[in-house]
Write a structure and sequence with these properties.
Blueprint lengths: L1 E6 L3 H10 L5 E8 L2 H9 L4 E5 L5 H7 L5 E4 L6 H11 L2 E4 L7 H5 L17 H23 L3 E4 L7 H9 L5 E15 L9 H9 L2 E5 L2 E5 L6 E3 L8 E5 L4 H7 L1 H4 L5 E8 H11 L8 E3 L2 E3 L1 H6 L9 H10 L1 E16 L2 E10 L3 H8 L3 H18 L7 E4 L5 H12 L4 E8 L1
Parallel strand pairs: 1-2, 1-4, 2-3, 4-5, 5-6, 6-17, 7-12
Antiparallel strand pairs: 7-15, 8-9, 10-11, 11-12, 13-14, 15-16, 16-18
Helix pairs in contact: 1-15, 3-4, 7-16, 8-11, 15-16
């Protein structure tokens, strides 16, 4: 019987807590946050929960809440990552995070590891992707040995993307002898009649859309401009071709770092994205309105990014809000999550094309009273937690969601099928 600390009870944390409440191997769920109203709301909706106040900027506050827990599920912003990791080490708990991190850059360069020259060391040319790359290296190479030393596992990147899509990409590798190129392709095809460009955090979305993207190309990490390297796809369930762009996301970084062991020697990896949010953001980006650098307008200093953000409606998260949007009507309730993996099988050039199918907005709301984005991210995270609580993760140290064994991948998707999340994979000769 497992005791779990859900740290941060926003959309993802609350969804996971509600699912974990139904698991027979879970004894207690501690729901902890700075926002006690949110905590009380989640605790009232489950049977095994108790609430606690936690200030995640105070490491001791996390340690106090985490006494005796088997797993800390971190649903907090990235700036809290180091505190939560250190708290997990202090109480000897397993650790799970929905994302990677960009906040361990200084730790890397203060370590002895930074003194060892890297083969094919990246030269990104921008601060953000540089910080991101070395922060993830710090997760693997600094925290990995620390968690091994306490015989525990830290698993990061466990939402929908990264997370679910990474497990599906790992699954595609079983059909290849060698891999040349991986595309992760996501289309948010839900368009409401109401102006609603983002179904998740607008600040996160606009930040991802305005930062340099990161790709893995010819065995090297590179940074690419936002909205760069466009490509078109039209799968059979799309009414017309959709243009996808490079997007700032974790997956190419994880696949590139794990290329030899987990991705059949992959040389190229890209994350491509399209949807209402990209349509909205592209023109603002091209005009410089997503810049974080202050400018003077009419005698006043403003930050363009903050100005644009102030006009963007928040993503719906309450049941009543979502119901109103559905009642007002949808233009489209579609989308895609696709993995294209190019390589060789039995000496022939092949494409492994995997489509991830999951409930859309209307079905997600009918099933759980939440949006499709909340469903995929929260439920995707819960599936990794279920592997933890059923003792199906025997790795120690630090791994990302793309580093599961094929047996663990099979179990993950067996659990996913119970939530109507399924894979359709075809191997095509080229």
């Amino acid at each position: 019987m497992k005791k779990i600390l859900v740290l941060g009870v926003g959309a993802q944390g609350s969804a996971a807590a509600k699912r974990l409440d139904k698991e027979p191997n879970v004894k207690e769920i501690i729901c902890a946050d700075y926002d006690m109203k949110a905590v009380e709301s989640v605790v009232a909706s489950i049977t095994k929960g108790r609430g606690m106040f936690v200030d995640a900027h105070d490491r001791q506050s996390i340690i106090d809440a985490a006494q005796g827990v088997d797993l800390i599920l971190n649903g907090l912003p990235l700036e809290c990552t180091e505190n939560v990791l250190e708290a997990a080490l202090a109480v000897k708990a397993n650790y799970q995070d929905y994302a990677g991190t960009t906040e361990l850059y200084d730790m890397w360069f203060e370590s002895d590891l930074a003194k060892v020259p890297e083969e094919n060391s990246p030269h990104f040319g921008d601060k953000f992707t540089t910080q991101w790359y070395y922060s993830v290296k710090a997760m693997y190479e600094i925290y990995g040995p620390k968690f091994e030393a306490i015989d525990r596992l830290a698993l990061f990147g466990t939402g929908s993307a990264p997370g679910l899509i990474c497990v599906a990409t790992r699954d595609a590798m079983r059909y290849l002898d060698s891999c040349e190129t991986i595309y992760n392709i996501v289309w948010e095809g839900v368009y409401a009649k109401r102006f609603l460009p983002f179904w998740w955090s607008p600040v996160t979305a606009l930040t991802d859309m305005s930062e340099m993207a990161l790709a893995y190309e010819n065995g090297m990490f590179i940074s690419t401009p936002a909205f760069g390297l466009p490509m078109q796809r039209q799968y059979e369930y799309m009414d017309e071709p959709v243009t996808f762009y490079e997007h700032c996301h974790d997956e190419p970084l994880q696949y590139g770092m794990n290329a030899e062991k987990y991705f059949k020697g992959c040389k190229n990896a890209y994350f491509k994205y399209a949807g209402a949010g990209m349509d909205f953001a592209k023109s603002f980006y091209q005009t410089g309105m997503l810049s974080h650098d202050p400018v003077v307008y009419d005698g006043k200093e403003i930050v363009p990014f903050d100005f644009v953000l102030s006009f963007v409606p928040p993503a719906p998260k309450y049941k009543e809000e979502i119901q109103e949007i559905i009642d007002e009507g949808l233009v489209s309730d579609s989308g895609c999550m696709v993995i294209e993996a190019y390589g060789k099988k039995d000496g022939k050039d092949v494409l492994v094309e995997t489509h991830v199918f999951a409930p859309g907005l209307v079905e997600s709301f009918e099933k759980a009273g939440i949006t499709a984005e909340m469903y995929l991210t929260g439920q995707g995270g819960y599936l990794f937690s279920k592997l933890f609580i059923n003792d199906q993760l025997d790795q120690k140290g630090v791994i990302s969601s793309d580093m599961l064994t094929f047996e663990q991948v099979d179990t993950y998707f067996k659990y996913a099928a119970e939530l109507d999340i399924t894979l359709d994979t075809k191997v095509k000769e080229l």
